[in-house]
Amino acid sequence: MRALATVLVLVLLSGCAATQPAPEPRELTLAAAPEATLREVVGLLMEEGYVIRHADAELGRVEAVLARWPGYRVRAAVSSEGQGARASLTATRGGVPLPPHLLDPLLAELQRRLGLAP
Question: Taking a C-beta distance cutoff of 8 angstroms, is the pair 53, 67 a contact?
Fold first, then answer.
């Protein structure tokens, strides 16, 4: 009986140790300079109510969290691609990856701000 209880506890604990899958990025290639794109990403997130926790212009990365419930976290990376930039965004809520299509409104607004909206 004691062995069964021990095995049951180990099985339950191993279920808790399972890792979450990495969030799938939503990417967009833009005909804009990477530096300008990163600046616009930071400004957009701040206007949407996100608090910038970390930003590194040299690496082209930004991490922001929503200052109100439900506590979304957005990570953005901007890199050079040809004559333009590639913006990549991922989002989580409570450590759980969110579907990438939820980032489409942010990317559309980023395009508009850069003067690249269709």
Answer: no
Domains of the chain by residue range: 23-113
Task: Return the CA Rg of the chain.
Answer: 19
Class of domain 23-113: alpha beta
pLDDT in tens, 62-111: 999 997 777 899 999 999 999 999 999 999 998 899 999 999 999 999 99
Please give the DSSP secondary-structure letter assigned to residue 32: S
Question: Is the pTM here over 0.70, yes or no?
Answer: yes
- Phi then psi for residue 43, to 5 deg, are -60, -40
Strand locations in the chain (E): 26-30, 50-56, 61-66, 72-81, 84-93, 96-97
